[in-house]
Amino acid sequence: MSGHRKYLAIASAAFWHRLSERAALIGRIVFYCLILLVFSCVWRTIFAGRSAAAGAEGSGAASSYVWYLVVTEWIMLSQPSLHLEIESDVRSGDVAYQLARPLSYVGAKLAEGMGDLFLRMIILAPFGLLYGRLFSGQWVSAGALAVCALVGMVAALVLLVSYAGIGLCAFWLHDCMPVYLVWQKLLFVLGGLMVPLSIYPEWLRALALHLPFASILYGPGQLVLHPSPEHALRLWLELAGWVGAGLLIVLGLERAGRRSLELGGG
After folding, report:
1. How confident is the model over 125-153, as pLDDT tens digits?
2. How far apart are CA 15 and CA 21, in angstroms?
3. Which of 33, 40, 28 is nearest to 137 (CA)?
4. Spatial distance between the Cα atoms of 55 and 241, rounded to a whole number of angstroms
5. Residues 6+ apart with CB under 8 A from 45
6. Distance between CA 14 and CA 50 in Å, rounded?
7. C-alpha 50: how far from chain center
8. Residue segments in the chain with a per-residue pLDDT below the cut of 70
9. Each residue of 244-257: b (16+ CB within 10 Å) or e?
10. Between vectors from CA 94 to CA 25 and to CA 108, what angle results, nearest 5°?
11. Which of 72, 139, 191, 248 is 20 to 30 A removed from 154 (C-alpha atoms)?
């Protein structure tokens, strides 16, 4: 079996294995809906207050942000905890045996993570669509949803690769949680997970737009609000570039980790 087929087999096996874990999937669906409910209620309250103060109607804006939350939370909550799996392999010593295999260790982990990731995205998507329709009172065009889904999948891949890089830090730090927490907070704030960057101060928005965080969450979220084929293509290419850069980084970290193990006696 050729190398790429082996990775596809790993991804397929992970997909079907995770599909059998129904309790975990149901729990993630429930959590997704709860998160959407809480923050959409917060946004409705905010816009209702603004409307009362300005004497304007804000329900349309509130409904739009419901769809924004559906997209950003869909990308975030579809992510597997790949960094914790890699950290566990490093701390237990299992990584030494896996590095000896003919396949790239991080490549196999990413393939496994992709199988898990795409299953979660497929499972969560219909619930996000149903929630968006019920709580916004309106549908987004099918074209906008399709474009947003394609871009969102590439954005999720950027995030998955970043989690692999964080997990590989365990070769030197042994506990990658501090790195993960810093990355996560930057993603929440500069990525616009719950608050779109359009309402940020100009200097902070300009900073965020030059970092990968905004492309991962804010970009796909904006597409569902303001669909634009030109913007979607530009964002897709930008995210593909971040995937490529991320892969180069994690492969470099894998090689450095391998050398670290060899110097440390295995």
Report:
1. 999 999 888 887 778 888 888 888 999 99
2. 10
3. 40
4. 45
5. none
6. 47
7. 31
8. 1-3, 46-63, 263-266
9. eebbeebbebbeeb
10. 55
11. 139
Helix (H) or strand (E) holding 263: helix 229-263
Residues in the chain: 266
* The token pair that represents 141 in the structure block: 């065009």
- Rounded alpha-carbon distances, angstroms, from residue 87 to 10, 164, 172, 173, 186: 19, 9, 11, 10, 21
Among all chains, which residue has been given the structure tokens 């396949």? 103
At position 38, the amino acid (one-letter code) is V
Residues 155 and 238: their CA atoms lie apart, in Å, by: 10
In terms of Cα–Cα distance, which of 159, 157, 176, 158 is closest to 83?
176
How far apart (Å, rounded) are the C-alpha atoms in residues 240 and 226? 21
- Apex 158 CA angle, 156 and 164, nearest 5: 105
Q: DSSP for 96-113?
A: HHHHTSSS-HHHHHHHHH
CA dihedral 211, 213, 218, 220 (to 10 degrees): 110
Cβ-Cβ contacts under 8 Å for 3 (sequence gap 6 or more): 103
> How far is residue 41's CA from residue 65's CA, in Å, rounded to a whole number?
11
Structure tokens that stand for 192 in this block = 């616009």
